[in-house]
Specification:
The complex is a heterodimer of chains A (about 180) and B (about 450). With about 180 residues, chain A is of the alpha+beta class. Helix content of chain A is about 35%, strand content about 10%. Chain A has a domain of about 120 residues: OmpA-like domain (60s Ribosomal Protein L30, Chain: A, 2-Layer Sandwich). In chain A, helix 1 packs across helix 3. In chain B, the strands form seven sheets. Chain B has a six-stranded mixed sheet with strand order 1-7-6-5-3-4, covered by helices on one side. Chain B has a five-stranded antiparallel sheet with strand order 2-30-29-28-27, with no helix packed on it. A four-stranded antiparallel sheet of chain B has the order 10-9-8-31. Chain B starts with 17 loop residues before the first helix and ends with a strand. Chain B is built from six helices and 31 strands. The chains are: A alpha+beta (about 180), B mainly beta (about 450).
């Protein structure tokens, strides 16, 4: 039933967003920084020893009224959290993922990275694979919701980019997640 | 440049008679005209790194030997007669630290004793009364052009014979390398097993938000930065010949496997398929790699040529398979999988086929490394909530816990199989350590104020 209702909701949301102001969007810090860094330094890592410090961030593109930036829209929600040792997308994330599926289905040129993460206990490579499982779980949900595989890439950061670097259960829970990150952000 | 084959066939294991070990002799003066060809080859790259990273030159690692083997060989090391302008610290200091870190040797206090520089000057009675089994003496002489000649002698105090005599014509930049070679000779002559002190290690250092992939001597000294990035770098692995390194970099906003020449720093992407690309492992021979890709489904193991061509899928089934590593004969692949419901080590033929579970104790066994003789695995095992390095004898299934720390990662064997390098956490930061395969000697290789992780022992 959700599937039937959702496009209607989405359309309403989109139209509601049309009047939102055109300030450059604030996306998640980490993701934005990654984008800015890469854009300013196409070579990425430096293997010849030249200093690559001092990269400055720049304003991110964002259409005026981009529904993905509207805090009221489920499209502004980007993180899917997982229970310990679990790779099941919980029901509470359904509406959010249906919103993203609707957006991707309406914009076939939109691309999205599903970035899986893990807490930092144990092997880095194993955690990379665990993060991948979390990314794939979200990819499969979006796929069932009709999103083309060509629009999605499931990747993992493992334990390498913790949102919360602390060694507490709370931090671990915060880091066990998949982020939905659009290619133009 | 390769070490001489053991002159003395005695094995350390089960042989605790120092005198029997010392009975082997080798007394010819061997010239080693080019002791560190490798250092020369790598030198241009290091110069680059040093120019832009002056801190690399003064990074110092400390050594803490916290235990020792039951029977250690007592070695008296007389400081070599020095030459004006020679580098510091003394060769006997560097070589002595090497030997102590292995756990096989105990240094005899040489203070107050005569300091011979040639075998003819040695009064063996003095050294015998000090409890020395072996004596190391030598001298350094300055040569024109800033070079040095190092002569060193290894003497059997009990038999009063010469075990080794070598001379090196070196530049100042080869100072530490020469000390490591001397330690290798001493290790081999006295234990019958080649030393691994001239080998190198790689690790990733994190400083703030910057990541540096570094190559250092086996004692952690002389670090050279080979990659620096604002994004994480993990899983470095030396090629079998030590000339290249593969690693996983996140600079492309996702994990991608890179291969890099350690000679000129040039690099290329080996695996950059859709999804994640990680866990590279060289096949013996250095032409092929095992990698973990997610292009078809969840993390699966593939083979790929070192130039990125010839992709072949090895594992199937949709479970999580990762951390592949080849047996020394290249026939078997060990890897980590969750196919049984928990993280465990499995093995399979490297050409594909049925897999078999290898680790059975506990619910989390990951990051396998294979010993150079193929008889042992070292891996990380979770016990009582702590992650520790264990040694698993494949034939018997016997497991020995090698460490007593709680957050160990990334074990790899020394080229001579006598020690395991690993990462752990102390005081909230990552440090590197070595542990002898008998678990009795642990040494800490640790820079102050930095976060070191992802170590790999190379040739």
């Amino acid at each position: 039933m959700n599937k039937i209702l959702w496009p209607i909701l989405l359309a309403l949301t989109l139209s509601a967003c049309g009047t939102t102001g055109g300030t450059p969007a604030t996306v998640e810090d980490r993701t934005g920084a990654t984008t800015a860094t890469t854009a300013a330094k196409p070579a990425g890592a430096d293997s010849t020893g030249v200093s690559s410090n001092g990269v400055a961030g720049s304003a991110l593109p964002g259409e005026p009224g981009d529904p993905r930036k509207d805090p009221a829209s489920p499209l502004s929600k980007r993180s899917i959290h997982f229970d310990f040792d679990s790779f099941v997308v919980k029901d509470e994330y359904r509406p959010m993922l249906e919103a993203h599926a609707g957006y991707l289905n309406s914009k076939r040129d939109a691309r999205v990275a599903l970035q899986g993460n893990a807490d930092d206990r144990g092997s880095r490579e194993y955690n990379l694979a665990l993060g991948q499982k979390r990314a794939e779980a979200v990819r499969k949900v979006l796929s069932v919701l009709g999103v083309s595989e060509a629009q999605m890439e499931a990747i993992s950061f493992g334990e390498e980019k913790p949102r919360n670097p602390a060694s507490t259960e709370e931090a671990y829970a915060e880091n066990r997640r998949t982020d939905v990150v659009y290619g133009d952000e | 440049m390769r070490r001489n084959k053991a002159a003395c066939g005695l094995r350390r294991q089960g042989c605790h008679d120092v005198y029997a070990r010392l009975a082997c002799q080798s007394s010819s003066l061997i010239e080693i005209p080019d002791p560190m060809l490798r250092a020369v080859l790598l030198f241009p790259l290091f110069c680059l790194a040093l120019l832009s990273a002056p801190f690399a030159a003064r990074a110092a690692m400390e050594i803490q030997v916290v235990g020792g083997a039951a029977s250690q060989i007592a070695v008296a090391m007389v400081p070599f007669q020095s030459a004006p302008g020679q580098p510091a610290p003394a060769l006997t200091e560097i070589a002595g630290n090497d030997l102590e870190r292995s756990g096989q040797f105990r240094r005899v206090d040489v203070s107050g004793a005569p300091q011979p520089i040639a075998p003819a000057q040695v009064n063996y009675g003095v050294w015998r009364s000090k409890g020395a089994d072996a004596l190391v003496i030598g001298q350094v002489a300055a040569l024109p052009g800033g070079r040095f000649e190092v002569r060193f002698y290894l003497l059997d105090v009990i038999k009063q014979t010469q075990l080794a005599a070598l001379s090196y014509n070196i530049s100042a930049t080869q100072w530490r390398a020469t000390a490591h070679q001397i330690a290798d000779v001493i290790h081999e002559k006295l234990t019958g097993i080649p030393g691994a002190f001239s080998s190198r290690i790689a690790y990733v250092q994190k400083q703030g938000k910057r990541f540096e992939l570094r190559v250092a001597d086996a004692d952690g000294q002389n670090p050279r930065t080979v990659v620096r990035s604002n994004e994480p770098v993990i899983s470095p692995r030396f090629s079998p010949d030590g000339a290249h390194m593969v690693y996983v970099s996140f600079e492309d906003k996702k994990p991608v496997v890179y291969a890099q020449s350690l000679k000129d720093g040039s690099r290329r992407k080996v695996a950059a398929f859709k999804g994640s690309n990680s866990a590279p492992a060289w096949a013996p021979g250095g032409k092929r790699l095992a990698v973990v890709l997610t292009r078809d489904e969840a993390s699966q193991i593939y083979l790929i040529n070192a130039d990125g061509s010839g992709l072949t899928r090895l594992t199937r089934g949709g479970n999580l398979d990762t951390e592949p590593v080849f047996s020394p004969d290249g026939k078997t692949l060990y890897f980590t999988s969750d196919r049984g419901g928990s993280a465990q080590i499995y093995q399979m033929p490297a050409g594909g086929g049925e897999s078999r579970r290898v680790s059975f104790s506990g619910s989390y066994n990951v990051s396998p490394a294979v010993s150079p003789d193929g008889r042992y695995l070292a891996y990380i095992s979770r016990e009582d909530g702590g992650f520790r390095v264990v040694l698993h004898e494949l034939a018997s299934g016997q497991i020995r816990v090698l460490t007593d720390t709680a957050r160990d990662e990334s074990p790899s064997f020394a080229p001579n199989g006598q020690a395991v390098l690993y990462a752990t956490v102390q005081g909230g930061r990552g440090i590197l350590g070595t542990v002898s395969v008998d678990g009795k000697t642990r040494a800490r290789l640790s820079e102050s104020g930095v976060d070191a992780r992802e170590p790999a022992w190379g040739p």
